[in-house]
Amino acid sequence: xxxxxxxxxxxxxxxxxxxxxxxxxxxxxxxxxxxMVARARSRGNDxxxxxxxxxxxxxYGEGLKYDNSNYVLYCNRxxxxxxxGLWEQSVxxxxxxxxxxxxxxxxxxxRAASNSKxxxxxxxxxxxxxxxxxxCSLKLIHCRF
Length: 145
Description:
Elements (H helix, E strand, L loop, with lengths): L5 H15 L4 H25 L3 H14 L4 H13 L3 H14 L4 H14 L3 H23 L1
Helix pairs in contact: 1-2, 2-3, 2-4, 3-4, 4-5, 4-6, 5-6, 6-7
């Protein structure tokens, strides 16, 4: 759905839409969802920065209750799981992020790092190969233009 400052931009855009059609119940619901997701992400980021990884997991999970297709929240929660040594959960959240956004390199790298703890040889090498192929293809695409 959104990444970085796009979270804040989404809130502004949703609020602007609500002023254009203030009586529309669906617009109001979307504004609320966007605000709740942005708030959960911000809270999770603050907790993560403070080293409160368990609480950050919960905050990102709260945001996912409002938007279960938000690959950024899955990926952020994945790094919290890994900081807690919960590698399988980290892999699961990276997989969720990649199901939504297949070329999300941050999720690919985090999944490879967590897989290296779960199954050090086979899965890690697979993750590194996928990341390498993506990097090469992105570099080729960039060079063509």
